[in-house]
Amino acid sequence: MSFDLHTHSTASDGTEPPAHVVAEAARAGVAGLALTDHDSSAGWAEARAEALKQGLAFIPGMEVTSKTANVSVHMLSYLHDPEHPGMMEINAAARGGRMERAKRICDRLSEDFPVTWELVLEHIRADTSIGRPHLADALVAAGVVSSRSEAFNKYLHRGTKYFVDQENPHPVDVVQRIRAAGGVPIIAHAMAGARGGTLSRAELEELVDAGLCGVEVYHRDNPEPGRQLLLDLAARHDLIITGSSDYHGVRGKPNLLGENTTEAEQVVRILELGAGSPAVGPLPS
């Protein structure tokens, strides 16, 4: 049994509704999946219902953006209580920050391209956690670029005049809040240097001390030396080891559902630790 524990839907920056993501996971042949939209649990109910229909295991999750002084850190949270005060606080702050950042980027883009805030809003749902991919969609709709990837490569990455940074909580704070909410924190694509800086070994050890439960090792953006570093860290501290696609839909990213997966025994460890929200469907034991 294999599980894909990192996927996104239109509840954040994915291009497919939650139910469609689950149906695609079934077609990809995985035994179960986690929906991990950015700073949002809005897609859980729809994904859960479709998973039960498809006979898949469903693990509720979320991806929380955090930041050290120099490095953006994405933390996957599984089985947390979304109504825990600590999680509600950082989610509300993140969603507000995302909205303000998107508006500022849009203002900068509009100086050079036919991109308006109204055009951006055409590409999100009412409950969407907005992000740069939606600005990329607006650039595609305006005929400036042909794809999200081209938009990021040309205009939306750090270093361009359109980029705007966002304030985010420290990853130690995020790990502690996830644990307090009954969740299982696992750091996502921690060695993805192409995305920007990566944490040092000492910083990773600090997260373990704070309560980090696992590491996403098998992700297309983690190079082999980085994977080995994460495997060594996991062995030293008996951490959970996961693999995931980081699927964003066929129009979102080239990542394919099930291209990297998590073994059943690692999923069992997540299920044993999580206490905030239940997983459903045919779960491994």
Automatic annotation (TrEMBL):
Gene3D superfamilies, per database record: 1.10.150.650, Metal-dependent hydrolases
CDD domains the record matches: PHP_HisPPase_AMP
Domain of life: Bacteria
A GO term for molecular function: 5'-3' RNA exonuclease activity
Polymerase/histidinol phosphatase N-terminal domain boundaries: 3-68
Annotated Pfam families: PHP
PANTHER family, alphabetized: EXONUCLEASE (PTHR42924), POLYMERASE_HISTIDINOL PHOSPHATASE N-TERMINAL DOMAIN-CONTAINING PROTEIN (PTHR42924:SF3)
Protein name: PHP domain-containing protein
Organism: Nesterenkonia natronophila
